[in-house]
Amino acid sequence: MNGKNGLARSASPNSLPEALRARAQTRRAFLRTAGRGGALGLLALLAGGLASAGRARRLNGQDCRRDGVCAGCGRVEDCGLPAALSARARREEQA
């Protein structure tokens, strides 16, 4: 313990053993590696978001097979999607 606070001083790069000196990174290399890791994570999030974009129209596990056109759909009575709810409400108003 050599410092004022009783803390050990950091060793200079020349006093490190050869095996540690070979593995030591510079600040620039660390920042480059961290930047690449961050970019890779961002790319993974973007790819996951795009992959799930097709599933975004699902609601409660239901998927519209007719692109929101409920007229003539055989599943409209059991469907919980907003378009089907509106179609049933209009049908009940007309009846």
Structure description:
With 95 residues, the chain is mostly helical. The chain has 2 domains: 1-56; 58-95, no CATH class. It is built from 3 helices and no strands. The N and C termini lie far apart (89 Å). The relative contact order is 0.06. The model has no long low-confidence stretch (mean pLDDT 76).
List the total number of helices. Answer: 3
Regions with little confidence, pLDDT below 50 for 5+ residues:
none
Oligomeric form: single chain
Give the overall average pLDDT.
76
Distance between the termini: 89 Å
Residue fraction in strands: under 5%
- Total strand segments: 0
Domains, number: 2
* Topology as a string of helices (H) and strands (E): HHH
Helix content: 40-55%
Radius of gyration: 31 Å
Q: Biggest sheet, open or closed, and with what strands and sense?
A: none
Derived from helix and strand composition plus strand pairing, the structural class reads mainly alpha
Task: Give the overall shape, derived from the CA principal axes.
Answer: rod-shaped
Provide keyphrases for this structure.
95 residues, mainly alpha, 3 helices
Question: Quick gist of this model?
Answer:
The chain is mostly helical and 95 residues long. The protein has helices at 18-23, 27-51, 82-94.
Spell out the blueprint of helices and strands.
Layout: H1 18-23, H2 27-51, H3 82-94
